[in-house]
């Protein structure tokens, strides 16, 4: 027999059924009130909220320096985004003892002082500060537009790199000497008693399989001095990545880059070098003062990792080491079988095609996915067309005759560098750590490059590049760090009179353009996707201590 609602309420015999009934009435009321809202308003609200949801970045990947805060705090994201809309950014000049040549991740003296050990060159490794650089670096007094290539290989302006200590310290080894307003590089060195050209010819005769510029194209020079070895190998179509730690010999890498020779700051310490496995055709060390047998041979194992199978390690040193008892004991142990600490080799090992064919041949390390080869060749065609049809056109306003040191900030397969290979310049190809790893492909093509996180400062001196190039880099950067901080880093490493060439979305182009204009750069935009900026000599008046 049915029970009426009134009886249920009156008698309260079924409290559970009563509660359920009230809940159903409430839900029905909510649904009816929601359906009465305009669907147009709902759609509009959703569309307006979508950009905000897209701006929320996913958790960033593991960074090269975990101690560095590279993702803006939640409360700072609006501040970062609003900066890009503010044309009137206020800039100050960095002030401090090392301000002119400041490298944030290598000159973090507070972090260096707190190190528990320096035994393994920890003080020469990267120690990035928590905050990115907030000021602009001053120019050296009397700074001039650099001497053009190829004259710069042999002489540079002293005022651009005013470091006289190396001249005095190495005066007997013919590294560098001062002549009037110039620093002159005679081509000598600790190991180059008869000159670097004679030394290169000696290696070629001793090891005929090297075949400079054909078989051996990409070389790493460890402890390079002022990089004369790499500079003169350019005559043989060999590109050399010269590296040394900062201040081991005063400003040697800065001298190299001012000369227009490929070089970077790095050290064989406790961290891996920023290169992929099996990258270099040859590794060279001329009295580079690296203890290869330290820590059970870890430095040597690191070279083994980055040396291509079949590649050569050339180590030259004065005979003083030959009779040293310690070194004799080390080499007497050289026949002990190596253990599992060695890096694994590829299942299929093949040497790249001879240069220059290897530049556009299928790279051995290319992905085995079905369409990888087609994508690679299409990428090569794309960059060849873009460079010839757009980049080299006079309407962009880039004076390519003044361009020597070039950096591709997100190089991909190295297509941009390949497309300008015939010009008298060199390209440092950078693979961002947050993107696809294609650096092995770049080395396979006979080009050079490094891994880097653009939320941190680069391992190079200020004012070392003539042109910075990027293609759709900033849309990814802004999800992890501040675009203004990246622009400050670009200002740090670009020479006055140098150019930036950026291809990106309209939004990114407009945002970056406003920041660069606040730095007093001249900016032009082409086809709403190409930004060309030229850095001037302007520096702000106010100062900020670093």
From TrEMBL:
It is a single-pass membrane protein; Single-pass type II membrane protein. Its main location: membrane. InterPro entries: Put_SAM_MeTrfase, SAM-dependent_MTases_sf. It comes from the Eukaryota. Its EC number is 2.1.1.-. One of its GO terms (cellular component) is membrane. Residues 46-83 are annotated as: Disordered. It is found in: Endomembrane system; Membrane. Keywords: Glycoprotein, Methyltransferase, Signal-anchor, Transferase, Transmembrane. GO terms for molecular function: methyltransferase activity. It is an enzyme of class 2 (transferase). Residues 48-57 have a biased composition (Low complexity). Residues 74-83 have a biased composition (Basic and acidic residues). GO terms for biological process: methylation. Belongs to the methyltransferase superfamily. This is Methyltransferase. It comes from Camellia sinensis (Tea plant).
